[in-house]
Amino acid sequence: MPDAVTELFSAPLTFNWTLSFRCNFSCSHCYSRDESVDELATADILRIVDILVEKQVLFINFGGGEPLIRDDLFEIADYAVGKGLNVSMNSNGWLIDAAVAKRLRASGFHSVGISIDSAEPARHDDFRNRPGSFDRAVAALEHLRKAGVRTTMSSVISRINYCNFRDLLDLARDRRVAQVYLHNFKCSGRGFKNRQDLDLSAEEWKAFYLEALQVKQQTGDLLISFDDPVISSLPGYDEKSLVNGSSCGKLSLHMRPNGDITPCGFIPLVIGNILRDDFETLWYDSPILQKMRNKEASGKCVECGAFEKCLGGCTARAFAVYGDFNQPDPHCWK
User: Fold this and answer.
1) What string of H, E and C letters represents the secondary structure of 17-68?
2) Residues 67 and 91 sit within 8 Å (Cβ to Cβ)
3) Is the bond leading into 65 cis (omega within 30 degrees of zero)?
4) Which of 135, 232, 260, 265 minimizes the number of CB atoms within 10 Å of its CB?
5) Distances from the Cα of 207 to the Cαs of 35, 162, 177, 202, 214, in angstroms?
């Protein structure tokens, strides 16, 4: 495959859209649980869909908060799919029963991701601070499968699961999940507050990724995906991305419940508002996005031969820990 592109697309491929910060869970690592802003009315949300279609954005992924908290989620999805957008969603699964799964299918959701962070029910429930959440999440996967909705599973790697992540893969197989995302720990929001208890050391991250990449190479019945640019220097990592380093601000943007745009959900810097500001000006000229797209090596990255590929690792994590896009990713073991 070709090397990563250097030219900027005319718009992000994906908008990760937080319709609401409200949630029925109180997870230990959540980036947004302590945030609160006014939510847009349905009519304004549909106006935003029109803007995204006009700018030729291809994908919307609804996150949160819990997307199903919004009573108008199905109306929004119906409208977006009707306009030609590819719509997906991430959920904790609590509110998905058989009837809701059928409505998600009818609304045209391309896929629905369910968050499960441990194959041990008690450990997952404790991490999510909600008794019974594991059983409801697993049941949601089954409801979605029976309704004909493609399912994915999202697992945030942390101290509670990095030694037995293979059990999560087995759970996904058992529930006929199409793809598992092994997400890196972002250190944002409550993740920063609980970092000492939940995050791994740099050497532990290296050991985890070496094992996980080996498992991925040996796995043919399940898609396993990572979202961490810091692993690009490891042997066995041969995935090709459209861009080097973090994709946020290059291939994707994040939208808050009031229409404010941030580079990603884990970087709480507002570049503008989609209903008030000219989108193309924000996309091309935002000083924040410019800095993210043109990172400069600093610290140990200056002498590192992997910088061209990883560009310092996860920008959100560097910003959360050091307040500086250009600092080396604190997870980097090099």
Assistant:
1) EECCCCCCCCCCCCCCCCCCCCCCCHHHHHHHHHHHHHCCCCEEEEECCCHH
2) yes
3) yes
4) 135
5) 34, 10, 26, 9, 11
Whether pLDDT at 37 is above 70:
yes
Q: What is the DSSP string of 319-331?
A: HHHHS-TTSPPTT
Residue 102: the pLDDT is 98
79 CB-near residues (< 8 Å, 6+ apart): 46, 49
How does residue 32 score in pLDDT terms, banded at 50, 70 and 90?
A: low
Give yes or no for residue 79 having a pLDDT over 90. yes
Distance from C-alpha of 85 to C-alpha of 53, rounded to nearest angstrom: 7
Close Cβ partners of 20 (under 8 Å, ≥ 6 residues apart): 39, 64, 65, 66, 67, 69, 70, 257
